[in-house]
Amino acid sequence: MASVGDIRTGLATRLGTISGLRTSALMPDNPNPPIAIVIPDNISFDDTFHRGMDTFTFRIFLIVGRADERTAQNSIDGYCATSGASSVKAAVEGDKTLGGKAYDCRVTTMSNYGSSVIGETTYLSCEFIVVVYA
Questions:
Q1: C-alpha–C-alpha distance, residues 21 and 48, integer Å
Q2: Whole-model pTM?
Q3: What long-range pairs does 20-25 form, CB within 8 A, spacing at least 24?
Q4: CATH code for the domain in which residue 76 is found
Q5: Is 23's pLDDT higher than 90?
């Protein structure tokens, strides 16, 4: 059975295949965009008999700088695409076993596209939901 930490690291590793995107398997105090932060959301235990599989849900909090609105939106739009070099979905699903830590994973949702204030700085951000079967 994979641990939360193993899966979180596997997701950050997959996101690291996107050129120019920083990744963090841990919650940074001061994020340096563009960055994708992997956050455990919930776990459904015992989805198969005798502890055969659990279902993990993770959020990927993606943050880009907002110095220029148009540039920020074009940047985040690339991460939200279903395919392409910057696609979060394509990067994560490029190895659905996350380096052998899972049976399967899927990026299922993108939401909360908009401004986020962290400290005293306003960024553009969105969240992806990833379901991992391990």
A1: 36
A2: 0.92
A3: 21/79, 21/86
A4: 3.30.2000.10
A5: yes
